[in-house]
Structure formats: structure tokens, C-alpha cells
Amino acid sequence: MPRRVVVTAEAADLIRRLKQQHGPLLFHQSGGCCEGTAPMCFRQKDFRIGVRDVLLGAIEGCPFYVGGAEFEYWRYIELTIDVVSGGGDSFSLEAADGVRFATRSRLFTGAEAAALDAAGPPPFGPQAFGTTTPSVCS
Amino acid sequence: MPDDQTRISLRIPAGLRSRYDNFIGGQWGAPVKGRYFTDPSPIDGARLAEVARSSAEDVELALDAAHAARDAWGRTPAAERARLLNKVADRIEEHLELLAHTETIDNGKPIRETRAADIPLGADHFRYFAGCIRAEEGTLAELDNDTVAYHFKEPMGVVGQIIPWNFPFLMAAWKMAPALAAGNCVVIKPASDTPLSLAVLMDLIGDVLPPGVVNVVNGHGSEVGAPLASNPRIAKIAFTGETTTGRQIMQYASENLIPMTLELGGKSPNIFFADVMDADDAFLDKALEGFALFAFNKGEVCTCPSRALIQDSIFDRFMEKAVARVAKIKLGNPLDPNTMMGAQASHGQAEKILDYINIGRQEGAHCVIGGERAHLGGELENGFYLKPTVFVGHNKMRIFQEEIFGPVLSVTRFKSVDEAIEIGNDTLYGLGAGVWSRNGTTAYRVGREIKAGRVWTNCYHVYPAHAAFGGYKQSGFGRETHKMMMDHYQQTKNLLVSYSPKAMGFF
Fold this sequence. Notes:
The complex is a heterodimer of chains A (138) and B (507). Chain A has helices at 9-22, 68-74, 110-119, 128-131, and strands at 5-7, 25-29, 40-43, 54-59, 62-66, 77-85, 99-107. Chain A has 138 residues and is an alpha/beta fold. Chain A has a four-stranded mixed sheet with strand order 3-2-5-4. Chain A is globular. Chain B contains 15 helices and 23 strands. In chain B, strands 15-16-17-14-13-19-20 form a seven-stranded mixed sheet, sandwiched between helices. Chain B is globular. At the A-B interface, helix 2, strand 6 and strand 7 of A face helix 8, helix 9 and helix 12 of B.
């Protein structure tokens, strides 16, 4: 079963360091403006997940959500979470250290898309993280 | 061209210092934890200044200063507040070149834009709100013979403001001017990518406003923005930026039950009806410029006209001229007054845009011009330059739905007026739109149907004061650049007065 969100080694390393520093984390990506269209990394207690947010999976044990409306356009996209330098100001936790999580997109192949469709829609809402199956967690 | 460009090196203006702290209580002070970050220039990656990397402790100091100044500023007569705001505008105009130059080297936008638009519009904003506060009145109503309701507008007190890196100076003016005019004290956090023009402004106006009325805390979103937005000592928070952060700000505001205004992103449609090609005249020329305006401020504008909808019957002819117009866009060192499009504001931003260009290709959109990094060579090789890019595709593609925030235009076609409206509205956002038609009725009807707060009609990218600006849908709420913004920075006090000496008879 293809994963909807994967992470580079460098990003995984950064996430581990941020977890040590800040405690449990989550990711949320939506769109818009300036520092947008990039994953926002917050302490879990600092961001309320809404009922329409879609859980794509987990990276380094941290849930990765996208906005429900945006998911319609990302249904057949694999997101790879990477790290860039000089990413600019953001409320995302890593930005203060001069780096920034970034998203790279790859269109799923026909076979991958079919497999994902067959599995049904991904979970959504704040309670989704506790109930995800191991196959979508890294 | 490469030779000319490389001879104009990164000139640092004489008024720019090498280190900036926080401006609190009328003076510069070092951040409590003594940490600094380096602010690079997107023109060539060179280091511009060290800037305070503040934390929650510095936000508290700024709030202390703002609260100390709060009552006196709130009681300052409107005419005096207006006089001081006009003095701020005077200082901006006197130092236009310094501010324009600073803005250009910090953000990468062309100097012809900072000289002609960013800085003068900023000065005008202070003048506009100085006028608004002079002319402001409350209301009263005689409810019955004995009872009068007096409605007074009062300042909220101390407000927090968080601004983005794309129009650093202008966004500071848009936020500060109405808040100050309305009698509030401000704690403002500029983007850490672009703190310099506001810092230079405080050097220029530090003696004009009473200490504590404006406080600038430099630093990053998570370390300064979050403690500011969630602080119980602000009466209101204003934010311009991206969507997820907008949600987080709203959550913080809900903890303290404070109001907010939010300006988030956009995916503004620029709609060209067939009649624009009825004549080969000045208006057609203007419409072609309108098409190319996706490159204004290198596309890093919330209202970037990043979708162009062209009526089917003129599609090929219009595109031929329009793409030729885009090909003439002069990319270069933003300090060269001939440069039309400068550097993207950061390395990360350039990378994000390139990723979208890649996505566009993966989705099957056809790239008709641009689509890659621009190598300007010489001293500019380390800057963040991209070629203006035009794709042709359909409105369900990601490059038509997501805000790229760069010089990338996605073009599609429509047949009827209804289809133009449908495609124009098929977006999560509702900030800006452009409608181009020689037929006033068509332009009016379409403009009224588009669900966006700003519909430019036979123009684009003009931001005069006294024209309200703000979003529908996921673009946020609240209207700036108009006197109605003052309502967001004021409370209404109803003095309900009885002139009757008699008890009501209840108890």
C-alpha cells in the first residue's frame, strides 16, 4: 500500500531533534501566501485539528494532516517531506533555527492510485491519529 | 545585459546599521536572551545585518511599554494624533530613497517599485488615517423625552500585529496607521526575512511618537509571533500570512476572547473578455500589461493574478500578444532602475516555486514560457532569480488551485460569461480578481458575481487608500486600507443616559 506521506533522512533527523526539544509534535499543511504551502510543525498542544482535516499518515511518529478542502487536490499525490535552508520566517517550530520543512510532490502511478482508491478514503479529524493502522505510520 | 547588471553591485545605503535590536518604549534595546540572527539579501545572498532574535520575554517588555503609554495616547486629541501621523508621513517622504533602497535589498523587489509604489503608498497611508480620525464622529439618538443613547468610539488599548515579508514596509503602514489613528498602542513583529525597512523607519520617527506607542519586536514566528498572539495583554491581533498559521492565530485569540483580522492567501482570477481585442489600442495594451502583472513583486503577492481566464474566441490571438509581453519582462538586479522583476525573497521561496513548476509539468500543463531558474551570472549568481513562467491547463490542476506565490501564471479558457464566473469562483480563496471588458455592464455583472473582496475592473494591482481591501472565503476577514478598518481597532461605548429623576417602579 503506497504511503501518502514520506520523509527524507534529513527531515527525519530534524523531527527527532525537535521532538526532543518540544515534546509531541504534529504537522499540518494547507495553502496560501508567504510561508504557506509548506508543512507547519507545531507542538500537538498548540494546534487544534479540525473535523475536516485529513490524516495522510505519520512521519517519525508525528501525525501529518492536510486541510480537508486541499486534500481533494492532493488525493493522488505522494508528499515527501524534506528540509531546506533559508526557508524564511514561519510559525513552524524549525524556522527559528534557519531551516524549513518543505514538501515535494510526486503524482502516484495508475497502479498506486488504484490501490489507494481500493483502500478507501484516509481517516480524518482529531481522533484519527489514535486509530490509524500501522501501514500508514512510519 | 549581463555586463551592465554585474556592475551594479549590492550597494548598502548609508543609513543602514549593521545591527538592529528591538524598538521598545521609545528606544532600541537588546533582546533579553542576547541572541541574534543574520538577515541576508536575496539579491546576491550577502549578509545585510544582525537582527534581534527575540523571545517571549521581549514581548512582555514591549507590552509593558505599550501599556504604560496606553492611556495618554488614547486620550490624545484626534487633531494631535493626526498631526503626528502626518509628521510620520513627512519623515517617510523626506527619506524615500533610503527606505526604498533598504526595502529593495532586504526583499529583492525592484527599486522602481519601492520608489514608485511601496514607500509612497506607505506614507499616504499615514496621511489617509490622519484624515479619517479628524473626520470621525460618534452618533447619538434621542430614545424618548428622558433618554439619550450616546455612542462613542474608544481605542481598544494595546494591539498585536504580525506582518509578512512580501511588502514589509507597506504592510507595516497598513497595520500601524489605522491602529494608531484610533488611539491604540502597538506591538508589531515584522517578518524575520525582512525586518530592515521597519527598523530604519523607527530610526526616522523614533522622536515623533511618544515612547511606547509603537514597539517593534524582531524575531521568528514561533518565538515571538506565538507569544504575542496568545498573550492575554493584547486587546486584538492582526495577522497577514498563510492559512494554517491563520487558524493557529484564531485558536490563540479564542483563548483570550479577543477579536482579530486576518488576511490570508489568494488565487486571483484575471478574466479577459473577447471585446478587449475589439481594437488594437491603448486599452488592449493596458489589458496585456494586466496579464503580465502576475510578475509584479515577483509574484509574491497575496493578490497575484495567478490565473488568467481568456475567452475562447480570442484565446490564440490574445495569448500570442500576451506571451510576447511576458517575454519582454526585464529580470535583473533589483537596484537597477530598469529592472522590472527582481529576486524571490528567499532560497526557500525559490525552491517552493520551482517545485510547483515541476508539479505543473507532472499534471500535464503546457509551459509556454519560462519554467526554470534564471542564471544572471556574476555577482547575482547566488541570488534567487526565476524566469516569469506561463502554463496553459485547466482549473482543476494544482497549479490552478494552490497559491504558488511566485511569477507563475496558469492560463485557461472559457466560452460564456457564466463559465467565466464559474471558473473564477472555483477556488478556496476570495481575495482579488481582475475583470477586463470594454462593456461596462458585463464588467459590472461579472464583478458582482465574483466572490472576492477586491475586484479590479479594467486595472490590476492598484492599492489606493480609501478602497477597501480584504478577503472572502479562505482569504480571511476584515477590510484594510479604508476607514472601515478603524472599526476593527475601536470599541463602541454606549452611554445610555437618563435625564429623568423618577425611579422605574420595579423595586
